[in-house]
Amino acid sequence: MKVDLFDFDLPQDRIALRPAEPRDSARLLVLDGDRRADHIVSELPALLRAGDCLVFNDTRVIPAQLEGRRGEARIGATLHKRQDLRRWHAFIRNAKRLRIGDEIEFPADVRAIAEARNADGSFLLRFLGDDPVEVLLDRAGRMPLPPYIASKREADERDRADYQTMFAREKGAVAAPTAALHFTPALMTALAQAGIGHETLTLHVGAGTFLPVKAEDTADHRMHAEWGRIDTATAERLNAVRGKGGRVIAVGTTSLRLLESAASEDGRIQAFEGDTEIFITPGYGFRAIDGLMTNFHLPKSTLFMLVSALMGRERMLAAYAHAIASGYRFYSYGDASLLLP
Q1: Count of beta carbons in the 10 Å neighbourhood of residue 306
Q2: CA distance linking residue 79 with residue 56, whole number of Å
């Protein structure tokens, strides 16, 4: 399909720069088949059914954005995927000033060697010293806010809490699974009292999620790989939910993509550990999920293509037009939608 089919105009003042307070006071646009209604996130227990199960991503965002120097040249690095204990793939700003074998000096005596250049233009960096890379990042890094926020303000200390979900446990993401930012302990208690369960999986979200689709046709776009895991017990419990007539509802496109990567042809969710490059566009047959809660996405992005695959492109364009006209807040710190095909 032509990428331009997924374009729409978004006023800059609709881009949220801070999350709602409290988190579950964010607005929630519900699409239930052809029905559309405006709600708030705290009303979610009344919008789902007893026996449904929400699936959250428990990845934890690391301070993966670094500013350093190679000689006199300023070098920016955004880590996006771990290679091993000491090496990470990174998107580099001012990459024309960096060559294989160069050493980059970051603050707090953190140093890395540019070991290789990848086909997509990113670099493989090897961090020097004995401290774990996560310790080095805590010393020298900052939270990797999405470009559409970072271009408007600097990341600050507040973002270290704001840009983590209440489920964040497994370190390794360089972007938050932002649909889950709306959940609070009080909301989780209310959901449990309504008979709505929850499970967690892990997908370490990479910075590739923010990369623009440069191809003119979706068939020519290649997704960046991200590492994920679903254990056997979690897979069995999710299959049991559907076996009893409940719905598996992914909280965030990251949870959805991992569930779909782990599903067999008959729709059963299997244990999974490894990389996924799944790219979901209209025409895809969903196997593992029955609904999705997600934030509002960028024009012509792979994530807007995904929600269009779930609900239909025309329906999603109309829903986004309604959201824009109604003052919904967009993107990572913005409001949410509940999509029930």
Answers
A1: 24
A2: 23
* 70 and 54 in a common domain: no
Q: The pTM is what?
A: 0.92
Phi, psi of 159, deg, nearest 5: -65, -25
Q: Per residue in 230-261, pLDDT tens?
A: 999 999 999 999 999 999 999 999 999 999 99
Whether residue 165 lies inside any domain: the answer is yes
Number of domains in the chain: 2
**Token duo for residue 319:** 């829903």
Q: Which residues pair with residue 78 across a beta bridge?
A: 65, 91
Please state, in angstroms and as integers, the Cα–Cα distance from residue 214 to each residue in 120, 211, 222, 302, following that order.
12, 9, 10, 11
**CA separation for the pair 21, 24 (Å, rounded):** 8
Task: Record the tokens describing residue 96, joined without a space.
Answer: 């024309």
User: Concatenated DSSP letters for 104-163?
Assistant: EEETTTEEEEEEEE-TTS-EEEEE-SSS-HHHHHHHH-B----HHHHTTS---TTHHHHT
Sheet containing strand 27-32, edge to edge, reads 35-40, 27-32, 336-340, 291-295, 248-251, 53-57, 197-203, 226-230, 272-276
What's the domain range around 120? Answer: 65-141
